[in-house]
Recover the amino acids of this structure.
């Protein structure tokens, strides 16, 4: 996906860019409103991540201008304020959602997914691997005629595997990416989800194999 | 608002008392003047009739063959009878000897007047009498002699007349007093009314309304309203400055925290060694904890501030909960927690929507934080009698049995909160909000409910309810 990140704090912007690129997204970074206006006018984005306090104005002004020029790209506001005081302001001005700094990337991902689902985007984001067609937005898996609805953790696990086929992921790495940091889960919890995915993938040419002592890998049979 | 404020009397009472007091004084003065005037008039009338009677007797005094002779005219005494039925006494004396009449009628002290009638109030036979005395000098056989005529009348009729006059004067005074007092109270009320209206207009304002007072006021109140407006302006500036400060401080603190958190997540993806990964996870948890604690402390400060003077608006609890559920759904989905809701249309509450939203959000946050993956959370709204009950039922294993007070105390956390990030202010905030609205928060172990069928077998949990009284 293609993101426009409007954030004046350069180290945060760099970190967020890195983090998004890790998941294979394309990110343009605008440090202030005027650059953001230029970017938004020249390129199509799937999502705009917008900070509120910017050096040359308030992010809400950008939001207003964006909606006034019929920009349809969904906007998620990154706010540092308490939810109550800002909530009304940004949502009324046309933001699709907001997230409070510091944010959990899985929460940001979940919010992006929800916003994009609401906007009807997503079919372009379908991923194909062997005979499996995976739609991360809709959370569905198609194998031939069969359509399976995935739970959130199954979906995210499949996404991890499908973005890096043939790569071995250790159990602990998968735990880090699947569970929030506040949950204390044993590495064996991953087995449950891998087991479920295997069941969903049955009948396709895609399999998840256990690499003894190292972890799991998804590959074509 | 005047609770505990020392008062230095009431302007209205003081004004009323002063005006009513003046009215009473003027009414008494009127009474005294009218009474003494009418009494004088009545006395003068009576005296002039007595004088006329005595004069007409004196006119009939003649000296005949060296002797004083008196032929009392009938009219002289009957004219007195016309005035009242009082008894009439008279005495006609020549020098020191009584010629005719009541010899024991008392004589006024001092020399008898000459030419002029003299009036006295005396006692005779146990009654008060009014007496006129006339003297005339006659020449008798070449000698000078004084003829003294006294005519007296008891004063019963006059006393009765006087009582009547007093009663009239009293009625007049009382009537005057009542009208004046009524006008005084009305004047006090109407002169104090702009002050009362201003006070009401100011106290009716919501907690956020810091506009200057613009309503027209009497010129005497301009200094008061001017200083009030100046004060409101100072308050507004200082409030908005502190709001800006909080926003700025939050921005300055939270942005670097976000950087650290994001870098930590990236590093966590890259490093392989388990010890390093464990410490990175600890780092992220610490960041989340401080951010959540800061958020809840700010929430709590805001709740304390807003419950001080509670805003009263119509709040649709169902719509508010639905909006919050939509907002929290992506977070719940991360743990594959299903949010079920049963939010029928209910009558609106009267309260502060931001506070109520904050309370419900904190409870939902808690429920999602503490619930295990792939569990159900149900949000049920019910109208029960004169109450609206919003229940949040989770499958988080339930709170330890204990009283609600201990759980909702500041920074208290349930035993199952081990290892979960939270500052323990969520329940406190919810309880303070619901109690500020005259309701209560209850915590009970959850039982089978009429909610939608759960996707997984029911697990033990708790049911936290907010009960709001309906307006």
């Amino acid at each position: 996906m293609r993101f426009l990140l409007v954030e004046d704090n350069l180290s945060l912007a760099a970190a967020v860019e890195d983090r998004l690129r890790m998941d294979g997204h394309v990110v343009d970074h605008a440090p202030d409103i005027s650059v953001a206006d230029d970017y938004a006018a020249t390129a199509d984005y799937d999502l705009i991540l917008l900070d509120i306090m910017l050096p040359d104005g308030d992010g809400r002004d950008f939001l207003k201008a964006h909606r006034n020029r019929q920009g349809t790209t969904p906007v998620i506001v990154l706010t540092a304020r308490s939810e109550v005081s800002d909530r009304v302001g940004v949502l009324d001005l046309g933001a699709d959602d907001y997230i409070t700094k510091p944010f959990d990337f899985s929460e940001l991902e979940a919010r992006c997914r929800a916003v994009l689902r609401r906007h009807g985007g997503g079919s372009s984001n379908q991923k194909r691997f062997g005979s499996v067609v995976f739609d991360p937005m809709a959370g569905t898996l198609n194998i031939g005629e069969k359509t399976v609805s995935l739970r959130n953790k199954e979906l995210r696990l499949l996404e991890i595997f499908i973005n890096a086929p043939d790569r071995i992921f250790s159990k602990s790495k998968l735990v880090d990416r699947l569970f929030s940091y506040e949950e204390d889960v044993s590495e064996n919890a991953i087995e449950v989800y891998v087991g479920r995915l295997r069941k969903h993938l049955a009948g396709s040419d895609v399999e998840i194999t256990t690499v003894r002592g190292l972890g799991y890998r998804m590959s074509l049979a | 608002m005047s609770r505990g404020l020392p008062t230095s009397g009431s302007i209205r009472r003081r004004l009323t008392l002063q005006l009513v007091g003046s009215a009473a004084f003027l009414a008494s003065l009127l009474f005294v003047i009218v009474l003494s005037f009418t009494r004088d008039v009545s006395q003068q009338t009576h005296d002039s009739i007595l004088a006329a009677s005595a004069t007409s007797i004196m006119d009939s005094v003649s000296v005949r063959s060296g002797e004083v002779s008196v032929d009392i005219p009938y009219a002289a005494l009957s004219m007195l009878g016309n005035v009242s039925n009082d008894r009439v006494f008279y005495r006609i004396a020549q020098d020191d000897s009584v010629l005719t009449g009541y010899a024991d009628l008392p004589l006024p002290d001092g020399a008898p007047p000459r030419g002029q009638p003299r009036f006295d109030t005396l006692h005779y036979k146990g009654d008060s009498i009014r007496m006129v005395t006339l003297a005339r000098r006659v020449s008798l056989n070449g000698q000078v002699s004084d003829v003294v005529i006294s005519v007296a009348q008891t004063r019963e009729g006059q006393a009765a007349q006087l009582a009547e006059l007093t009663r009239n004067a009293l009625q007049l005074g009382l009537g005057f007093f009542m009208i004046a007092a009524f006008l005084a109270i009305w004047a006090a009320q109407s002169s104090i009314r702009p002050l009362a209206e201003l006070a009401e207009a100011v106290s009716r304002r919501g907690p956020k309304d810091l506009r200057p007072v613009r309503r027209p006021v009497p010129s005497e109140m301009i200094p008061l309203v001017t200083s009030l407006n100046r004060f409101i302006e100072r308050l507004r500036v200082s409030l908005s400055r502190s709001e800006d400060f909080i926003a700025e401080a939050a921005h300055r603190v939270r942005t670097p925290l976000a950087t650290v958190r994001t870098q930590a997540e990236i590093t966590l993806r890259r490093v392989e060694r388990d010890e390093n990964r464990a410490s990175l996870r600890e780092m992220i948890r610490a960041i989340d904890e401080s951010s959540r604690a800061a958020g809840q402390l700010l929430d709590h400060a805001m709740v304390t501030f807003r419950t001080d003077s509670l805003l009263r608006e119509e709040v649709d609890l169902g719509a508010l909960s639905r909006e919050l559920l939509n907002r929290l759904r992506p977070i719940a989905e991360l743990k594959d927690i299903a949010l079920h809701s049963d939010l029928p249309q209910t009558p609106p509450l009267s309260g502060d929507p931001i506070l109520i939203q904050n309370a419900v959000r904190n409870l939902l946050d808690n429920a999602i934080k503490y619930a295990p993956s792939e569990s159900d959370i149900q949000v049920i709204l019910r109208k029960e009698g004169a109450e609206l009950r919003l229940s949040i039922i989770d499958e988080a294993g339930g709170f330890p049995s204990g009283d609600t007070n201990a759980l909702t105390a500041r920074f208290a956390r349930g035993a199952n909160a081990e290892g979960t990030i939270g500052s323990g202010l969520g329940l406190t905030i919810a309880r303070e909000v619901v109690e500020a609205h005259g309701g209560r928060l209850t915590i009970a172990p959850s039982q089978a409910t009429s909610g939608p069928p759960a996707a997984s077998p029911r697990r033990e949990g708790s049911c936290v309810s907010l009960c709001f009284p309906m307006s």
Summary: Residues 48 and 75 of chain A are 5 Å apart (CA to CA).
